[in-house]
Amino acid sequence: MVFGKLYGLPENGRTIAVLVAAKHNDLELELVNTQPNSAVNTSAEYLKVQPLGKIPAFEGANGFTLSEVIAIAIYVTSQNEKTTLLGKTKQDYASIVRWMSFANSEVLMKLGAWYRPLLGLDGYNKKTVDDAAKAAVKPLAVLEQHLTANTYLVGERITLADLFTASLLTRGFATVLDKKWRSDNPATTRWYNTIINQDAFKAVVPNPVFTEEVIKYTAPKKEEKPKAAAAPAAEEPAPAPKPKHPLEALGKPTLILDEWKRQYSNEDTRPVALPWFWQNFKADEYSLWKVDYKYNEELKLTFMANNLIGGFHARLEGSRKYLFGAQAVYGANYACVIKGVFMVRGQDFMPAFEVGPDWESYEFTKLDPTSEADRKYVDDMWSWDVPVTVDGKELEFADGHVFK
Ligand SMILES: N[C@@H](CCC(=O)N[C@@H](CS)C(=O)NCC(=O)O)C(=O)O
After folding, report:
1. How far is the CA of 290 from the centre of ligand 1 (A)?
2. Ligand 1 pocket residue status of 104, Cβ below 6 Å
3. Residue 209 — pLDDT band, cuts 50, 70, 90?
4. The GST C-terminal domain covers which part of the protein (predicted)?
5. What separation in Å is there between the alpha carbon of 109 and the centre of ligand 1?
6. Contact 69 CB / ligand 1 (< 6 Å)
7. In a mutational test of the pocket of ligand 1, which residue from 12, 14, 47, 115 has the highest number of ligand atoms less than 8 Å from its CB?
8. What is the mean pLDDT of residues 377-404?
9. Residue nearest to atom 11 of ligand 1 (CA)
10. How far is CA 216 from the centre of its chain?
């Protein structure tokens, strides 16, 4: 039986921490993919569970809800009365919470400030990133010193402190804790390798990534834009109020997009949702587009590619009423591509996509809903259950985001 839902993202360290704790106790959690700043976590219902709209958040099958990753991880772990993950004594337990708090507020915050801009998740400024890299040294040195003298964070066996801290470090090891850092910090590296090889951990993160070098920031691709017009002269009239979305002019369609989104979310994709889609699709009201990333050769780690999709979708928020689609990363680290299909109100992709600047990084090809091959392509891109073939090579589905 499912113990509850966890709102989060599979590549997010705080989400991983809870999933690993649950796995260790054979507790089944349903992961509800929740991109920060998406419609899900800004809904009034979500804000009741996580008032800041952040991830992760927990909703038990019995109705109990919880925010804050430390609390969720402890709650999930403590469901097993016999768990050894919470230590033997009150001192053990307090020390476990101490390390979890240290990892969550000291280590992760500093590391995140270093890699998030490099991943394009936060605005990039070289000085800020350099400062963050320096600031991360101190809390990481505390870990190294402790793990030089101790096998685990607390006591003589693995506890929640280890599973939790290692989970929070996954993205750090994949991006900035490079080969040189690892050789300078052998105790943390030895300990991390031990923890990620535990069965519960491997079940959640089968292939943790170790970066060779600190990843480089690459500015988002944008084609040359004409220079912005000069600022309006003072005597010019104030600009008119912001126009409504251009697609509003098309009026109300007979195929209600939200109805399709409900079908897709609630029904099995292949057997129920897709047949419903093709029965109800209106080619005069919507168009279908193959949306491929233009710069696949520059993609590195699959989770970074998936972040790129997440960011793209977040910036399409203004067109949510007019769009549905799924995009996915296919392949493996250093050999992956981004592909997907969108359904767009109207016959042109531009009015819906130009609300987000990164549409220029994608190639849009119109699909023909009367062509069997194109219909199969749509089905495959929205089902995520078949690989794609690129340059003669079969690339398996790795991860993706649905825009709904
Ligand atoms: N205090 C919270 C922090 C949660 C948090 O910051 N989550 C990040 C992802 S790891 C998030 O949702 N960020 C989005 C935002 O800050 O808007 C906890 O420990 O659970």
Report:
1. 33
2. yes
3. very high
4. 89-224
5. 10
6. yes
7. 14
8. 93
9. 54
10. 20
The residue among 31 and 304 whose pLDDT is bigger is 31
Q: What are the structural domains, with CATH classification, of the chain? A: 2-77 (3.40.30.10), 90-204 (1.20.1050.10), 246-403 (3.30.70.1010)
| Phi, psi values for residue 396, rounded to 5° | -80, 155
Predicted confidence band of residue 240 (pLDDT cuts 50, 70, 90): low
Q: Whose CA is nearest to atom 6 of ligand 1?
A: 54
The H or E element that residue 36 is part of is none
DSSP secondary structure letter of residue 25? T
Contact 385, 291 (CB under 8 A): no
293 HSE (CA, 13 A, CB side): 23
Tens-place pLDDT, residues 145-178: 999 999 999 999 999 999 999 999 999 999 999 9
HSE-up of residue 372 (Cα within 13 Å, Cβ side): 0
Give me ligand 1 centre to Cα 166, in Å: 17
Q: What are the tens digits of pLDDT across the range 314-323? A: 889 899 999 9
Cβ density class 307-339: b for 16+ within 10 Å, e for less: bbbbbbbebbeebbebbbbbbbbbbebeebbbb
Nearest Cα residue to atom 15 of ligand 1: 54
Could you tell me the pLDDT band of residue 302, with boundaries at 50, 70 and 90? confident
The alpha carbons of the chain give a radius of gyration, in whole angstroms, of: 23
CA-based torsion, 118, 120, 122, 124: positive or negative: positive
pLDDT, tens only, 313-371: 988 989 999 999 999 999 988 889 999 999 999 999 999 999 888 889 999 999 999 99
